[in-house]
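Student:
Attend to each token:
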Amino acid sequence: MKKLNPYFTFNGNCREAMKFYQKCLGGKLYFQTAGESPVSEKMPAKMKKIVVHALLTSDSFILMASDMTDDQGLIKGNAVSVSISFFSERAFRNCYKKLSYRAQQTYPVQHNFYGILFGSITDRYGNQWLLNCSKERIKAKG
């Protein structure tokens, strides 16, 4: 099966956001700027620091992002969320706390009717995160 990877688009703050996500989720972070691209010489100096592609990767996830948008510019919406499944309640709560910094809580952390510890936020960059951990995993690990 192929892996699906979330890809965020930012409006000039991709580097800041991806460093924040790295602090929350861990992993290795890589950036490619417009200034490092083959067409760098044809770009205005102010564009050379723009992130063309960012990659945050670990054994369990890949998160990609960019500051590059089309002619319409960046339009944030609620069409895409990132869902993270945890194997321990401790890891769940730790990540939720970190991602919640200057975020809007959209669903408070609680055990819901289908047996999952669940919580969701819209982070300070406008991206939606769905965090979950099943009761069975909590009992098995905790």
